[in-house]
Design brief:
- Among the domains are: about 100 residues, Serine Threonine Protein Phosphatase 5, Tetratricopeptide repeat; about 60 residues, no CATH class.
- It contains 18 helices and no strands.
- It starts with a helix and ends in a 13-residue tail after the last helix.
Amino acid sequence: MAAYMHSGHITKAVSVFDELRKDPACEPNVVSYNILLSLYGRHVLIDQMESVLRTIDESGISRTLETYNIAIAGYLIGKMWDRMESTFRAMEDGPVQPELSTHFLMLRGYAFAGDLEKMERMYEMVRKEVNSNERALIPVMICAYCKSKDPKRIQKIEDLMRLLNEDEYRPWLHVLLIRVYAQEGSVEVMERLISEALQRNMEISSVGVVRSILATYFRCNAVDRLARFIWQAEVAGWRLCRDLYHCKMVLYSRQNRLEEMHRVIDEMENYWVDRDKRTFVILYKAYSNAGRRLEADTVLGMMWKHGFALTRMASLPN
């Protein structure tokens, strides 16, 4: 059963369990049920997992620490936070008390659920053990802070980051950190993290992260920094989006650098980024605001040529 469970063969594992139940000389015990629980929990088959729990209770077999831990892990994988916690509370009130393994599971569960208050309380209980023996939980907590709106999240993230060694580097965590520092407007730290990512030959495929970066440059009106980032991202093979180029065009137009703004169109074509109506609207407004009517009228003609009706001009950020 365990071999089939670890290999993901649900049907075969259940078949062996059924044979076991039919054998009068060898009835299932709590170990057998725990394997079945783990099988269902790993595949997020929560109804089946809970059915096994009821069978254990009805058969008079006592639950073990592993039984509870497997159930908690199943609820954690299924993101059923209320049931995860109710199982933990049942342990606290029952004969089988939670141990370190249970606390580690709950810490992970609270982090995944984004329940920072309970995560922090649980971490305080097992801080020493986590920092020495369960260090894989540290990036999980950092991730929870990255996704939170905690006003002190930067300080808490940096405190946890200092606990990690170089060999515990995680690319996915690096990407999250780029985004969180971008959201905080920490341009210098964000650019240092971007530089480190490039040195490690990382490829960022998340458009959300890229948009957080460009939003930071946009707020700072830092068009040259944005242009450098776009060039680096193009060379590194990061996922690009049209918003990057539109943002650069808008910032160039704000600084009246219209020739550089127009060259962005060629950059878009070089990297197979299609022009849309907003592309032309940015051009039109830039030339109109600069009093260059000939270029503005030319852009209008290009819009008609590409089939973009001019019923209402799209608004630009101030």
